[in-house]
Amino acid sequence: MSKIKKIFLNGIWLENPVFHQVLGVCSALAVTTRVKNAVVMSAAVIIVAALTNFTVSVLRKIIPFNLRLIIEMIIISTFVVIFDIILKAWFFDMSRQLGPYVSLIITNCIILGRSEAFALKEGPGLSFLDGIASGLGYTLILLSVATVREILGTGSFWGYKLISDADIPARGLSMAGGAFIVMGVLIWVMNSIKLSGNKEV
Amino acid sequence: MNKGMGKALLVTIIIATVCALGLAFTEKMLRKRIIDNQALAESKSLLKVLGFKDVKPSEINDIMKNSVKKIQFGTSFYHKATNVQGKIILAFPMKGKGLWGPINGYISTDETRRTIVDLIITRQEETPGLGAEIESESFYSQFRGRKIFADDNPSVVKISVAPGRRSSGEYEVDGISGATETCKGVNNMIRNTLTKAMEYSHVQN
Amino acid sequence: MEHSPVLILIAAVLTNNIVFSGFLGMCSFIALSRRIDTAVGMGFAVTFVSTFTTALNWLIYHYVLKHGALSGVSFLDGVNLEPFTMIVFIAVIASFVQVVELIIQRISHSLYQALGIFLPLITVNCAILGVSLFMVIRGYGFISSVAFGFGSGLGWMLAIVLMAGLRRKMRFSKIPPGLEGIGITMITTGILAMIFMVFNGMVRIN
Fold first, then answer.
1. What element of type H or E holds B118?
2. Inter-residue contact A124 to B65 (CB < 8 Å)
3. Exposure winner among B105, C85, C106, C170, fewest CB in 10 A?
């Protein structure tokens, strides 16, 4: 039980892959102009990370060590492409909006990183949970950035208008540069919380 | 060493084959659905410029069959429909090129082909946040009700998109600042489509 | 009206820089921008790999994978390999990197020392896969694709070298403790991205 708790605590907060290892930021930034897109993207990463971790863990004893990267990449791309096909079949509008970034989950280093660091060593059940946990960590960042950018940059939330077009506070945030800055400030806030927590302990 | 390598390759090939089969199977199962989705999305855009707003997905095929007529002209075609107010609207497909890739869409005019009714962009690969803004309600809304020709010269298309800046006259719509190439692409696409539409205005059915 | 490869190249380096407007290749961008010499090394490696894998992937896509590309061969008629595009692309990139690593190791020790350590990292650099993917979506011809691959690589190199220079200066600045490292790098990248938007009016063709 405590091991599971530790996996989730590490994945989401203590060793959040996006902050700590700067993994998976590429796609994290591109899709965060709208909260809705960020939710779908996060779901994709959670599902793919969990399934990949599970599969790699099941196969870990027979995967040859020197070819493991290629095998991991094949497994990841299979899951990503299948997810993309499913998205196109049932959520067509969403797949149009996310465009190529769903496919680029293949190179999201979180997934490869976790299967290298965790799934090759641990059992399938725990690996599956670890995939979900790292996916959730990614989700936390994605949703925070997307919320700030959608509200301040386009004046709406989940597609509903909150602020009239003329009064949008920071239109620049919906552009590329804004994503980096929101992300930087978010990292600052989270690190500061962590630092002050450490002092008390 | 060699034996180990052979086994490693065999394992890799088996895993790759299993993955490929899984993928092929999923694709085969869902292929028809995806193609239907694409066709449906295309029809929905077409109906929007023809004045059928907020159509339910289940009604799209019915409306397309009963109320919209496809008319061939030259090597191209247009769609004709009567909207809710009883006015005839013509929708012309547009094909053009932006900075990064193809741009497609529809533009609709009234029966005289002299006033724009609506516009929609159905495909574009432009820069998100800049050129990609051509696919937005605020860009479309600028075109509604615009005159296509100047009063003194009724044969040359006058309406244009300002390249990457605000409009400077009655016959120009605001471009998107920072996206000069995209605006030029859209401008050419709209003007080519409207010119061709006028050249073939005698083709009526 | 096909845009000239030169325009695509300039656009890929400056106006639509793969880091600043495409958000691609961020992981290694942040991890390897601490020192200028590593940044330059990685920049060359990325440019090299991105140019050649784009060319290879273009040929494979258009002559094998594309829907209908195999229709000339009778027994393969009707086979659709399009869904495998991504897997083939990533496999091509991974194998290309592996082969280049072997070749460099054989022919030049000093080049291997300079580039070798970066090569394995490139497989998971999403800029490389992104370039191949965008080239398919945007329907580029062969020359344009190569120009795009080369330009994106150069653009990535420009971005990481600029960043490395800035981070060297920043070492002597006072930065709030929570903002050090990734935080300030992100914010600086954001400011650089805004500066790069100035290039937007520059690319013109008449």
1. strand B116-123
2. no
3. C106
Interacting residues of C50 by C-beta distance below 8 A, sequence separation 6+: C127, C128, C131, C149, C150, C152, C153, C156
When mean pLDDT is compared over A94-103, A189-198, B38-47, the highest value belongs to: B38-47
Give the model confidence (pLDDT) of B116-132 as tens digits.
999 999 988 877 667 77
Q: How many domains is chain A partitioned into structurally?
A: 1
Mean pLDDT, rounded, for A152-176: 77
| Position with higher pLDDT, B198 vs C163 | C163
For A57, A125, B23, B63, C120, the CA distances from A118, given in Å and listed in that order, are 8, 12, 26, 54, 20
**CB atoms A62 and B38 under 8 Å:** no
Residues B124/B135, Cβ–Cβ less than 8 Å: yes
A32 in helix, strand or coil? coil
User: Would you say residue A47 lies in a domain?
Assistant: yes
Indicate the burial class of B185 (C-beta count within 10 angstroms; 0-12, 13-18, 19 or more).
buried
CA atoms in the 13 A half-sphere facing the CB of A189: 9
User: A50 lies in which domain range?
Assistant: 2-144
The model's pTM: 0.83
Helix (H, G, I), strand (E, B) or coil at A197: helix
Name the residue ranges covered by the structural domains of chain C: 5-201
Residue linked to tokens 């994978």: C65
β-strand pairing of B172-173 with B88-97: unpaired
A75 assigned to some structural domain:
yes
Q: Give the span between the Cα atoms of C97 and C109, in whole angstroms.
A: 17
Amino acid in position C5: P
Interface contact A176-C125, CB threshold 8 A? no
Cα–Cα distance, B78 to C119 (Å, whole number):
53
Complex ipTM value: 0.80
Q: Which residues in B lie closer than 8 A to residue A86 (C-beta atoms)?
A: 26, 30
User: Does residue B103 contact residue B71 with C-beta atoms inside 8 Å?
Assistant: no
Q: Classify residue A125: in a domain, yes or no.
A: yes
Residues of C with CB under 8 A from a CB of B: 1-3, 11, 16, 21, 80, 83-84, 87, 134, 137-140, 197, 200-201, 203-205
Residue A91 counted as domain residue: yes
CA–CA distances in Å: residue B105 to residues A14, B41, B45, B118, B137: 48, 12, 8, 11, 13
Q: Can you read off the two tokens belonging to residue C13?
A: 């380096």
Cβ of A174 under 8 Å from any chain B Cβ? yes
Cβ–Cβ of A96/B22 closer than 8 Å? no
Amino acid at C75: F
- Tell me how far apart the alpha carbons of residues A36 and A154 are, in angstroms, rounded to a whole number: 13
